[in-house]
Amino acid sequence: MKQEEVPQDKSNLSSKNVRELCYATDKDGNYTTVLSEGWEPKTIALNNSIQDIEERIELAKADVKAGKTSPIVYFMELHKMDLIVLSDYVGMWKWRVKRHFKPSVFAKLNDKILNKYAEAFEVTVAQLKNYKGE
């Protein structure tokens, strides 16, 4: 891509003075770096990803409220984690973390285990225990 062809479409990030470094060729054919404010297809993909994340957060919130899952699932989605990432943060096997997704199992967790989750989610144990989906 030539320097003058580097996309400069406005994106969600451009309002925050964030630009992406791209490589392009100058008029002599040498590679150089150019700052881009965004690219429309990338902006669309980013917006779709953000929308998917927001939907998963709302679904997790509704499931906690309905008693289908524990608050761990909501906070995991809120912090854009998955099972693998969360299990690494808390230092537990994936199967064990997944088991804690069940409200009946979550209710029996001791404060030592809950503290690991609270630290990973940057909340207090009380906030984690008392979250009811509101």
Automatic annotation (TrEMBL):
It comes from Flavobacterium aciduliphilum. This is Uncharacterized protein.
